[in-house]
Amino acid sequence: MILVISYPGEDHTEEVVRRLESRGRRVVPIDLSDFPSRASLRLEWAADGEPAYLVEDSRGATDLSAARAGWWRRIRPHEVAPAVADPSYRAFAASETSQAIQGVLDALPCRWVNPRAADAAAHHKTLQWTVARQVGLKVPRTLVTNCPRAARAFVDELGLGRVVVKAFLAMLEAWRETRLVTRDDLDRIELVRYAPVILQEFVPGVDLRITIVGEQVFAAEIDARRTSYPVDMRMVIGESDVRAVALPAELQAALLRLQRRLGLSYGAIDMRRTAEGEYVFFEVNPAGQWLFVERRTGLPISQAVADLLARLAGA
User: Fold this and answer.
1) Is residue 132 packed enough to be buried (19+ CB in 10 Å), middle (13-18) or exposed (0-12)?
2) What Gene3D superfamilies is this protein classified in (predicted)?
3) Cα 2 from Cα 310, distance rounded (Å)
4) 73 and 212 share a domain?
5) Same structural domain for residues 126 and 218?
6) 132/265 same-domain check
7) Coil/strand/helix, residue 85
8) How many angstroms separate the CA atoms of 288 and 303, rounded?
């Protein structure tokens, strides 16, 4: 059995699940937001025998101990029943649910894409940049700070038009594009004291989305230089030229070292190649998207993910 932690309508999940099921694999999708209000669990440790990890939702009952591979794809927060109105009780119910489910997922006798603890740690960009430097990747000059004085000094040193500001996480509730720091930003620089900000040297060039599945490296060039927003290719994918490319062998080796050091078997890496041919690392997203690359280039990334999960699950 292959356990998939995601939610209905997530197109990457559906594409991979379709491929697995077409090969006769049993796939059990679990949406964490179903707990505790729409799904139940029964976890038992008897005096003798193996533990039982039973969950039941609209699709029926499943013993999670049968899982041989797990895909930690995308999650939504637990949803507490509306009948629990008091905020403190709601927080308690969500916390207790999380403790029960997170613990049993870690107890399962299966191999994960990605291992959950490694996935959580690798989401931290401050860790990524340190490890990237250690494995031989070039990282742009970067400052993370909530000190207005330090932020202003960084921008003053590099100059307006040569510094971008970006967020740590791309949250649906508060999504922010990468953008150049402007004079108006400097006028309100004191606001930095309320939360750390990422300031990074702007690197002109061609974007690269490099998707790593196990030991397979799928690289695509995304040229947004002549689009309406060349600072952040995510904003102008439809305007950009996208094509599959080959990476230098030494760069591929460094990226695979990065994945191993972070403990990841899947990662969507963003880099930029300068006019001088230098490759600069920005970040790796342990749950990043790939369909926009696959559909434009034909790179068989979905099949590679399905193959990896099938191999981990065994016969």
Assistant:
1) buried
2) ATP-grasp fold, B domain (3.30.470.20)
3) 8
4) no
5) yes
6) yes
7) coil
8) 16
pLDDT, tens digit (0-9, with 9 covering 90-100), for 108-134:
999 999 999 999 999 999 999 999 999
Shared domain check, 237 and 181: no
Dist CA 127 CA 139 (whole Å): 12
pTM equals: 0.94
Answer for the pair 124, 196: CB distance below 8 angstroms, yes or no.
no
**Residue 175: pLDDT band by 50, 70, 90 thresholds?**
low
Mean pLDDT, to the nearest integer, of 62-68?
96
Contact 215, 270 (CB under 8 A): no
In a shared domain, residues 151 and 225: no
Same domain, 229 and 256: yes
What is the per-residue DSSP string for 217-268? EEEEEEE-TTSS-TT-GGG-GGGSEEEE-PPPHHHHHHHHHHHHHHT-SEEE
**Nearest alpha-carbon partner for 197 in 166, 223, 173:** 166
Domain limit, last residue, from 201, 230, 248: 201
Which residues span the domain enclosing 62?
A: 2-113
What is the reported pLDDT for 172?
56
- Neighbouring residues of 289: CB distance < 8 A, sequence distance ≥ 6: 12, 268
How far apart (Å, rounded) are the C-alpha atoms in residues 241 and 296? 9
Number of folded domains that form the chain: 3
- Percent of the chain whose predicted confidence (pLDDT) is above 70: 98
Any idea what DSSP says for residue 135? T
